[in-house]
Amino acid sequence: MTASENPRTQNPVWRFFCSVRLTIVLLIILALVSIVGTLIPQQQGSMAFARNLRPGTLKIFLFFDLFDIYHAIWFRFLIGILALNLITCSINRFPGIWKRFSALPRPDRQRPFEGLPDELTIATPGQAEAVAKDVEHFFRKKYKRVRSKASGNIHYLYGERGRFAHFGFYLVHLSILIILVGAIVGSLFGFEAYVNIVEGGETAFVNRTKNMDRIPLGFTIRCDRFTVDFYENGTPKEYRSDLTFLADGKVLEKKSALVNHPAHFHGITFYQANYGTVVGDRARLKIIRKTSKPATTAVEVKKGESIQLPGGEGHFQVADIRENFMNMGPALLIRVHPDGGQEKSFWVFQDRPEIEKRFPGLTRKFSKLNPSAFKPYTFIIEKLDTRYYTGLQVAKDPGVALVWAGCFLMVGGFFITFFMSHRRIWVRVAPGEKHTLVSVAGSTSKNPVGLERELEHLSRSLEEHLTRKGRKVS
């Protein structure tokens, strides 16, 4: 069946998808999209960039999902079209490839011996039939699918090697498809998230980077210890999280995450991204009692713990601790329970002198912000307990194994495509005027220089073989 008779080629949809032009266009589009994805910050890093855009431009960016290009539906669509293009191209070329692969030429073809150089013909004594047997024994050790034929007193041999080289480009296509499938699998079933864990704390959830959804991990991760080393100028040198992975309260594994050295567990990767400090649940207070005999008392308090007032007028407790209350820094909510009186609550700021400079008279105007709201006491924060938290980027990509497999397969496909060829070799043993003539010829799918070298090497090897058999070659 000719190409014009093939019903596939008559189908415009089929012609469109097996077009090499489509392949080129898709590759150019994907390359441009990758450049755009490099220039436009993606996911978590896009917030600062988005603030500088006009509302109309921002709507366009959000509509086309340009802040998360590689998970956008239209990007997956392009990948799918490229995969379909590769599949149809492969199917379209398969009949011709298979025909060349399975073809078995006649051993007695004369065309390969036309214009054969003299150095590829060996003259050796002996009858042509006996020489042909020696040559065939040697030839069958070197080549596959060897066939022989005698035409009168002329003997022919045919053999080949590397016929699977025809399928090298199929391996390349298959490797690309596997990589694309791996990318799609990772896009659909993987995630990119983050989590902050206070030193000593644990969590079984992470927050998706894109839409802040909570994702269950299926296990619990605990930060046992966080350490940070600094250079002399105060710049962080190295920070490290010692992590424990648990399930049903049982320790499964302990690992450490450092910058550029992530921790891996159950197919999920934890990258050390950042760190910070949070206020703890303890504080040291200085309580000044302004009476005829002023007194100052230092006391260590824990959130929720009831402490007697120095003068015995009642009890107080730290009801809440905020790291940045009203954007004015760390603060405590003091709740006083006087004996026989009404409960009184007020906030105490750690940076009160600085706040008074910025907002003169603020704490006097608002009793809820006045550390002296309960007379005759004034509460002052001397120290707040702080703890480090570790910031981890969390990624799961179940398609990574497929991508790696595709990469290795691609290397093999390129090796077969560029360094292997289908070589067909013919040998003719014919009687001459004084000697039997052994001629070597061949054809190749590519790399004709390599074929010439192989024929020269085969000719020399045949000379040596016939010489060992007692046939002096001239």
The whole-number mean of residue pLDDT values reads 89
Q: Count up the domains.
A: 4
- What is the CATH T-level topology of the largest domain? Tick-borne Encephalitis virus Glycoprotein, domain 1
Number of strands: 18
SS class:
alpha+beta
| Percent helix range | 25-40%
Question: From the alpha-carbon coordinates, what is the Rg to the nearest angstrom?
Answer: 41 Å
What's the CATH first level of the largest domain? Answer: Mainly Beta
Question: What is the level-2 CATH architecture name of the largest domain?
Answer: Sandwich
Description:
With 474 residues, the chain is of the alpha+beta class. It has four domains: 7-101; 104-162 and 421-468, Kinase associated domain 1, KA1 (TATA-Binding Protein), CATH 3.30.310.80; 187-278 and 390-408, Sandwich (Tick-borne Encephalitis virus Glycoprotein, domain 1); 284-382, no CATH class. The protein is 34% helix and 36% strand. It is built from twelve helices and 18 strands. It has helices at residues 7-10, 12-17, 20-39, 47-51, 55-63, 73-102, 128-142, 168-189, 352-358, 362-365, 400-419, 448-468; strands spanning 121-124, 144-151, 154-161, 191-198, 202-208, 214-230, 236-247, 250-258, 263-265, 268-289, 295-302, 306-308, 314-322, 331-338, 344-349, 377-396, 423-431, 436-444. Strands 4, 5, 6, 7, 8, 9, 10, 11 and 16 form a nine-stranded antiparallel β-sheet that branches. Strands 1-18-17-3-2 form a five-stranded antiparallel β-sheet. It is elongated. The model is unreliable at 1-5 (pLDDT under 50).
